[in-house]
Amino acid sequence: MEFEGLPEGCIANILSGTTPIDACRLSLVSKLFRSAADSDAVWESFLPSNYGSIISQFPNYPSKKALYLALSDHPVIVDNGRKSFQLEKKNGKKCFMLSARALTITWGDTEEYWGWTTNAHSRFPEVAELRMVCWLEIRGVLNTLTLSPNTHYAAYIIFKMIDAFGFSNLPVELSVNFLGDHGSTKIVCLDPTGVESLDITSAGLQRPNVRSDGWLEIEMGEFINTTVEYEVEMSVMEVKDGRWKYGLVVEGIELRPKYEN
Amino acid sequence: MQKTEGEESKAENEEVKQVTLMTSDGVKMKVEISIVYEMEIVRSFIEVNDADHSVPFPLPNVSSHTLDLIIELVKNEYDDEFMKTFSHDELKEVLVAANYLNMKTLLDFIATAIANLLEKKSVEFIRNFFNIVNDFTPEEEAEIRKTNEWVFQDLDED
């Protein structure tokens, strides 16, 4: 069976049904395959269908492949600095981070309790810095239609501890749920240092991981995003112990696909 | 399919229109016009020339076996299960034929099926599958590996 005469468009058609990884890999097959694998038709199919409405303005890239790679290599700030948007490189799934400004922080507008500062290491123009509270409550909401359908997502609180006080061995409640519905709640410790204490309340609690961008993150919970519209609500709560605490710097809440290993 | 009364009586009075196609191996096949109309290459010819349907329309690039498979696929409304019975050669033949006949729906369907088959397969597997000769120089190959470095990290070729 000879395949001479099978046009590039036909190969592009097939490659559109694979993944970005496969398309790049298969550009090694032959010159015709490479040409098809680099074509805009293929990479347009890997981009989310509505990317144009998420990003209002972006530089002109020489190709859809270049645009795809740019969107997956670095987050783009959207929604007037309130969110960031990024593609997962291997499959083009959508990742969002809600900036601290896009979250509802109890006492967030009161200077004595929370401050708004810039942080050189943040992707956002502003981060929220906890000055002093007893009542710690942070909530974020996102419409699930914003995310990639039929995808298992997890939410992560992204933060730093800078000259922090009050968090060591303090149990903090993280939850994720569809608004008006039951969800999951977990108890963690936000203090990364993990000094094993005699304090039984924090023994064995999950602690944050350091990200490649230097921020700390800890998973808040997970959910399956189908194609049904929900408001997914994510929260960080510490109102039970009620001790004074400070030094928590919140960059935002990130939602990205989660994979079982 | 819902039909109005008028259409029904018309359909009863008139036998289903057929077009005769002549395959590459010289077989004359009578094919329902609704299926033929999915073949843009034939449809446009019929529409322009208002051709006499009894004169076989030649398809020099499609064998009778492949045409049989295509007709069954269209009749079965592109049934996945039916297509799973195809051999690799049959898949490729239907792909080439769908492209030649310019059958948009079939082409998308078969392209998706082949895409699923090719996912995670090695470059060598793909070359064998499509009977393609590597026309890159080692330098060109190295260049592709370099520009797509993120893909070639920790990859096990099978």
From TrEMBL, chain A:
Coiled-coil segments: none
One Pfam family from the record: PP2
Residue ranges annotated for the F-box domain, each copy included: 1-46
PANTHER family: F-BOX DOMAIN-CONTAINING PROTEIN, F-BOX PROTEIN PP2-A13
Protein's name according to its UniProt entry: F-box domain-containing protein
Organism: Sphenostylis stenocarpa
Lineage: Eukaryota, Viridiplantae, Streptophyta, Embryophyta, Tracheophyta
From TrEMBL, chain B:
Keyword rRNA-binding part of the UniProt annotation: no
Gene3D superfamilies: Potassium Channel Kv1.1, Chain A
Keyword annotations of the record: Ubl conjugation pathway
SKP1 component dimerisation domain ranges (all copies): 104-150
Domain of life: Eukaryota
Protein's UniProt keywords contain Nucleotide-binding: no
Subunit structure: Part of a SCF (SKP1-cullin-F-box) protein ligase complex.
UniProt similarity note: Belongs to the SKP1 family.
Name recorded for this polypeptide: SKP1-like protein
Organism: Sphenostylis stenocarpa
Lineage summary: Eukaryota, Viridiplantae, Streptophyta, Embryophyta, Tracheophyta
